[in-house]
Design goal:
The complex is a heterodimer of chains A (180) and B (101). Chain A is mostly helical and 180 residues long. Chain A has seven helices and no strands.
């Protein structure tokens, strides 16, 4: 077993343990903090699997931006608003049974395939190589993703402003007129 | 040189399983969204291991798009959660049963 294998199994255990802790916490703040650890472990895994650029993006976007966004919403709505109901077995048993069925089928499919026993060889895609590849082959998808992000931004702003009074652009003048 | 392909793939399957359980079993909209995030992360792990297995860069390109989609999904999803909370004052998905305000 090489050093890389030891590191891989350590990271895998870290990811599974922190994700397992995250999904069973009752307090969403604790769950989000455990999830940050899980995503940092995923970033290490990405680095080992030869994607340093994606490892950096994982830290910045997943562990940084998204989890902070989750924390913002949890803090804004108040932890008291979150669930106080206990863990009911009627919720968990069907989910666990179906999920374990899925894992069993996936394991069967993966381990049946003889080519899956092939040991991965180390390789690294340098960010420059990766960027050149992306913009040579998938430039259209990059543009589509940028439009998707713009649409998401518009949707989030529109949903976030709420019903308030008036829905259009005329809200501020009308409000000031009412005050006068 | 590192580990068998199947082990990385099984790690992805197990993480996906944890996300699925979190999404289905938890009675909290925030935890549901977190479950979706975990599942997307598991998909990214699977794509990266496949990318290393066949030494092709398509898998890494897909992970980049997964990141973009996940970022959009979480922002819109959280905006929806805030809007739903503003109407019903609860995070329990079972409480959203009224079709009109």
């Amino acid at each position: 077993m090489t050093l890389y294998a030891v590191v891989f199994y350590l990271i895998a255990a870290l990811i599974l343990a922190s994700t397992g802790m995250a999904i069973t916490r009752r307090n969403p703040v604790h769950a989000v903090v455990y999830l940050v650890i899980s995503f940092l472990g995923s970033a290490l895994l990405f680095y080992i699997l030869g994607a340093p650029f994606l490892a950096a993006l994982e830290v910045i976007i997943y562990a940084g931006a998204m989890m902070v966004l989750f924390l913002f919403v949890v803090m804004m709505l108040g932890v008291e608003a979150m669930e106080r109901r206990g863990f009911s077995l009627t919720d968990w048993i069907p989910a666990l049974v179906l999920g374990l069925l899925f894992v069993a089928v996936a394991g069967l499919a993966v381990f049946q395939d003889p080519s899956s026993r092939a040991v991965l060889r180390l390789a690294t895609a340098m960010p420059a190589t990766f960027g050149r590849y992306i913009f040579e082959h998938d430039w259209l998808a990059v543009e589509i993703i940028s439009i998707l992000l713009l649409v998401g931004l518009v949707a989030a702003v529109q949903l976030g402003r709420g019903k308030g009074e008036g829905k259009g652009m005329e809200t501020p003048p009308r409000k000031s007129g009412k005050e006068v | 040189m590192i580990v068998p392909f199947s082990h990385v793939f099984m790690l992805a399957a197990l993480v996906f399983f944890l996300g699925l359980v979190c999404m289905v079993a938890r009675r909290n909209l925030i935890m549901t969204l977190i479950g979706i995030e975990i599942m997307m992360n598991a998909a990214a792990i699977a794509f990266l291991s496949a990318s290393l297995h066949w030494h092709r860069l398509e898998g890494q390109a897909f992970v980049l798009f997964i990141l973009g989609v996940a970022a959009t999904e979480v922002s819109v999803g959280l905006a929806l959660v805030v809007a739903a909370h503003r109407q019903t004052q609860t995070m329990d998905p079972d409480a959203y049963k009224a079709l009109k305000e």
